[in-house]
Every structure is written in structure tokens, then in C-alpha cells.
Amino acid sequence: MKLQVKLALYNTLTKLAIILFTGLLILLSIEKISYNHVELRLEENERETLKNLSSKEISSKLANQKPYTDYNILKEEFIIITPVKFEPTETKAVKFTTETRTSDLVTQTYRILTHQFNFNNHTYLLEIGVSVTSIEELKSIIKRFTLLTLIIALALTLVSDLVFTKFLLAPFYKIIDRKLIKVNDPMNFDYEKIQTTTQDFELLDDSISTLMKKISNLFALEKQFIANVSHELLTPISIISSRLENILLQEELSEASENKMHASLKTLNRLKSIINSLLLISKVENNQYDKAEVVMIAGIIMEIQEELEDRLEEKHLTFNNNIKYIYSIMGNRPLMHTLLFNLINNAIKYNKPKGSITVADELKEDVYVLEITDTGAGMDQQQIENAFNRFEKFETEEKESYGLGLAIVKSITAFHGIRVKIDSVKDRGTSIFLIFNRE
Amino acid sequence: MNDLDPVTLIDSSCKYTIMNVLIVEDEKGLALEVDEFLSHEGFTVEHARTKKSASEKIFVNNYDFILLDLGLPDGDGFDLLKMLKSMNEREDAVIILTARGAVDDRVSGLEQGADDYLAKPFSLNELLARMHAITRRKHRLESNDINVKGLKINIQNRTVTYNDERITLTKKEFEIFNYLVLNKNRVISRTNLTEHVWGDVLEINSDSNFVDVHVKNLRKKLSVYIPIDWFETVRSIGYRINI
């Protein structure tokens, strides 16, 4: 998950928690405060009522042992005094309840004070109610209002958070994008500083640049080294091989010596092949080839099929050319030839006798895929992973293999921006996919 | 009818008898070996180790061949090529020899008028074959078929005939036969033969027994017409044509 998303998620969750908490707190305290207020009033009313028990209106009712009921006009308050069974001891306890009462077809919720008292040797139950409907209404209004305010606040802070983190993290993402994701080769690394006032990002940017500089220096050095060494080795090899050839011209040479000379020439040839392969890789990696040619894939495949006819025949292999499309790329023709030659040559080399090689293609919306499938030895996962390493070789009946074929393939595909995928089943065969981006 | 020796070959077609070669190469060891080989083949050989001495020699003498190394201590071999091309009435054939090996060098070398290009390390047999090819091209020796035991090789048309009857050879079989004939009486290794016929394809030259298939077919085709005891297989090395 991206840092920005994580931060946004964290902000949302904490804000939501704070809002829920404050919302609950506010609602609870409103209830508590308003009920408190009402209860104080009820207690005051009670005192007032008890003081007025002897008033004419009440006492006349009480004298007849009838309940006394009094609602005010809007039914917001009421007093009910009901005679109950006599209890000699008077309790001071006052009880508060919330109940719904109906009077004259008007139903309201009341906070009711209940109190038993003795008066003139009779026990009465006093109930004083105050309508809390208005309070409930107020409560719901406040509830809605706070909720709305909080939601708006949440939305606003969230947006501002997002905008700010986005602004804050912009240089960070720029660093990641330009300095890490888009870099497939340290040679064309972008050393331009990313504008930021955040010290940490500056440090990150600098560190990556420094590291990359070191790596690319090493890279350049390595490439230069390979190029130099290869070049400097070719001349001495040339001298030795010419010398051996001249020795072979001497007539007094024994057969044994002659054989040794030829064997040495063969060894020299091997050395030459290795050096030339390394030289090729280093030149491709140094971008010393241009790719301004229109190269037709199908044409090259046909050429290679013809060139390798003898090898195919020798192993009794069937070559199926199932190419359906005339697809061309801008590239370097000799390099593309070497690339496909190496792949098909491998398909021959690692194939079993009387096996087959199939070259097929597929044109998709955004890519062109060329597939080379053999029925050979196959590779396991470990071998696939190491396949493109230099000097990696597999068991083959061929006596000499330098293990540079796929390293060359790797450098040429990287040079042309072609992706390579290997599918392989041990002892069943290998499929190599070359994936060309359509532009 | 010509024999194979370059000296006698020129004898019948041109005025002069001995072909002269200028080796422009700063590596003394290599120059000496090329010299020894070409002298053995009947060429007159001269050396130049620097651009300066080479240009002096080129200015004074005509050469049949100039073997030109590109990386000279005092400059680029290409300059010599340019100088030569700017001179009038010069027919010197130029073969570029270089360890640079870059495709660009090859292309620009040929564009600037070099006749051929060989990357170091090269086989001396290959060098000789290239020189023969250039001679034939330059002097238009179409009529000069090579005769091997009654088999007539026409390099221009790339055909082999026996008593005017054409023997159908594949492209590769012809190349192999021609190369072995050019390098007659010498053992030519499979590696060398493969490199000549298939070119300098990486890795493929490693252990190339598939050249045997072609040789086998070639021998079968030739033996229909004449006994081919002169076409010898040298065990574990390669082949030799004894004439």
C-alpha cells in the first residue's frame, strides 16, 4: 500500500474515532444536563406543592379522598395527588422516572417526580411531571447539528490532510518514480535534483544519486575493462594462430605435432569466440550499435532456418515455422539476427533427436509475441533463473559450449526493449517468448 | 587452364609475374607471420609499421594488395585508405585487418573503397582465399577455370563440371570444395572450414561436426565421376585435397 494511502486511511480512522467519541459525549452530557435541570425544577415544584397542600382547592379534593389532578394549559406540566393506602412512616425518598402520559388526547413524554407523603393522617402519592418532549426535540436537533458539523469538519480536515500529504509527499514520489522506477540502467540515470524543502527527502535523493553514481562508474569501468581486455587479447591471439599455421606448413613436422598444432588452433578459436562474445555484449551494453533499421522478424527466421538446415537435419528435427504476421521493428539487423540465431541454435542444441522446434507468433493489442518452443531437455526453476548469467551452461551433448549465448540474448533484448519470458518443463521442453511492445 | 599458384595464375592473364603485398601493421610478430605465409605462397612482401612509412611506400610503389591495420601508432588506417583513393590510376586492393571488430568499421571500410575486411584473429588460409577472390574479381578471370583432376571449377558461375557435364552442388558444398582446392595440399581444420563457409557466427564454430555432412555429400557427388583418393579426411582434424 502506498504511504499516501496509508496516511489518509490512518487520518480517516482516527478522525472517525474522535468524532464518534465526542458525539457520544455531547449527547450524553446534554441528556444529563437537561434532566438535571428538569429535576431541580421538579423538586422546587414539589416543595411549592407541599407548602400549598392546605390551599382551598387541593384540601377540598383531598378531604374527599379523591385524586387531585392539575395540568397547565399546554399540558407541559401536571400535578397529580392520589390518595393511597395508609403508611404510618413517611419516606423522604423522591423517585424520578420518564414516562409517556396521555391527557385530553395529547400524549407527551414527561419527567415525573414521585413522592409519597402523609397529610392529615392519610398517605398520598404526589406526582409532578414536566414535559420533556421539547428537551427530546432539542436533543435530536443538537444531535443532528453536531453530527453535521462533525461530518463537515471531518470532510474538510480529510481533504486538507490529503492535499497537504500529497503536497508533502510529492517530491518523495518524484524521487521514487524518476530515480528508482524509471531507471533500468544506471548509465542513463537522471542526476537532476528533485525540488524539496523536506530534509529527509533531500537526503534520500542525494543518497540514491551518490549510490547510482558509484554503480554507474563501476559499470562503465567494467565495460571499458572488458572492451579493452578483449581488444588487447585479440591481437596476440592473432599472432599465435598465424604462427601455428605457419608451423603447420613445415613439411618435416611429425603427425603428432601436427595434431597438437591443430588442437591448439582449435583452442585459440574457442578463446576467440569467448572474447568476441564478451566484446559483443559489452558493445551492446555500451550502446555502440544503432537501431535505425527496419528489421522484419519473419525474414530473419527464414534466413536462420536456412542457415541451420544442416544442424536440423543432423538431429532429425522438424522445424515448424508458424509465423502468421509480417512484423517489423526498428532495430539493428545483425544483432536481431544474432539474437534469434542464438535462441534457435539453443533450441537445436538442447533438443532430443527427432524432436521438433516451433516458431509461432501472436499479435495482441499492445504487444507482438514471438514464441520459440523446443521439445528438449527443459529447465527447472533454478536453471531458468540462472539461464541469462554469463558462463552458465547446461549439460549438453555438444562438447563445447561457452555459456554466453543467453547472456548475448539478454543484452540484445535489453538493447531493443524486448521482454523475454521462459516457460519450461524439465525433460519436456522449453518455450521462449519474446515480447515486443507495439508503438 | 590455370594451376592454383597465384604467381602462375597472374602469369597467364596479366603482364607481371609476381604479386606484391604491403603489410601495414604495427604488431611486428603478426606482420612477420603474415609475411612468412605469403612469401611461401609466392608473394613479394613489404612491411610498414607506421602510418607515415606506409604512406611513403604507397606513394612510391604500386601494390597488388595492401593489408591495412586500422589502429596504427601514429594515426588511423582509414586515412591511408582515403589517401590511396584520392590517387589516380591506382588499382591496389585493400584488405582491412583489425581487432576493433566493430560492424561500423566494416561498413565504413567497405564504403570507403576497401575490397575486403578481416577481423583479427583471422586464419591465414582465409586471408589467402580472400586474396584469390579479389584477384579474380579485379582481373575478371571468368575464363580461368581451375582444374582439379579433370574437374573444372568456375568461380564466377560457382559451378563444377566434368567433361562439360555439370555436377550439381549445393552452395555450401561448392564453398567447401573451392576453399579446400584454394588451400590445396594443406590440412584444413573443420573449425577453419566452418568459419569460412558459415562466417564468424558466435558459438557455432565451437565443435562443428555438421560440416562433415556436407563433405560427405560432396565426396559422394564427386566420386560418381572420378576416384577421389586425393580428397583426404585427416582424422580428428579436418580435410586435405592433395594435388
Key attributes of the depicted protein:
heterodimer; A: 439 residues; alpha+beta; Helix Hairpins; Heat Shock Protein 90; 3 domains; five-stranded antiparallel beta sheet; five-stranded mixed beta sheet; 10 helices; 12 strands; rod-shaped; B: 243 residues; alpha/beta; Rossmann fold; Arc Repressor Mutant, subunit A; 2 domains; five-stranded parallel beta sheet; four-stranded antiparallel beta sheet; 9 helices; 14 strands; elongated; disordered N terminus
Description:
The complex is a heterodimer of chains A (439) and B (243). Chain A has 439 residues and is an alpha+beta fold. Chain A has helices at residues 3-51, 56-63, 133-181, 199-249, 255-285, 297-307, 309-314, 333-349, 381-386, 405-416, and strands at residues 68-71, 77-84, 94-103, 106-119, 122-131, 293-296, 318-322, 328-331, 356-363, 367-374, 419-425, 429-437. Chain A is 55% helix and 21% strand. In chain A, the strands form three sheets. In chain A, strands 1-2-5-4-3 form a five-stranded antiparallel beta sheet. A five-stranded mixed beta sheet of chain A has the order 7-9-10-12-11, covered by helices on one side. In chain A, strands 6-8 form a two-stranded antiparallel sheet. In chain A, a hairpin with a 3-residue loop joins strand 11 (419-425) and strand 12. The longest helix of chain A is centred in the middle third of the chain and has 51 residues, at 199-249. Chain A is rod-shaped. Chain B has helices spanning 6-13, 28-40, 51-60, 77-86, 103-111, 124-139, 171-182, 190-198, 210-223, and strands at residues 20-24, 44-48, 65-69, 71-72, 75-76, 93-98, 116-119, 146-148, 151-154, 159-162, 165-167, 188-189, 231-234, 238-241. Helices cover 42% and strands 22% of the residues of chain B. In chain B, helix 3 (51-60) packs parallel to helix 4 and helix 7 crosses helix 8. The radius of gyration of chain B is 19 Å and the shape is elongated. Chain B is built from nine helices and 14 strands. Chain B folds into two domains: 6-139, 3-Layer(aba) Sandwich (Rossmann fold), CATH 3.40.50.2300; 146-241, Winged helix-like DNA-binding domain superfamily/Winged helix DNA-binding domain (Arc Repressor Mutant, subunit A, Orthogonal Bundle), CATH 1.10.10. Chain B is of the alpha/beta class and 243 residues long.
